[in-house]
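Feature request, filed as a ticket because there's no other form

It would be nice if the structure record came with a short human-readable summary line next to the tokens. Right now we just get the raw output. Example of a typical job, pasted below so the devs can see what we mean:
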Amino acid sequence: MNTSQWLKKKVMDYKRFVMTLLIMSTYLYIGTLISLYEYGTKAYLFLYPVIGIALLTAFIMTLKIRKWKRQLIED
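Raw output as currently delivered:
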């Protein structure tokens, strides 16, 4: 397998993982809203850092994907 094929597969894998992180963050955020309004607990405070880390990771991975796509176009 040459480098461009390997890079294409890696880009596709990262795209799938970014989508997974975004979906997970959405579910966690909906869970915080439910716990806030339905149960009145403070458990949502523990989920906000997890949501933030997941979104930050997705953003960083998106930047890497853009860099690798530019690399593929140049080759």
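Something like this underneath would help us a lot:
The first helix runs from residue 3 to 39.
The helical segments are 3-39, 44-74.
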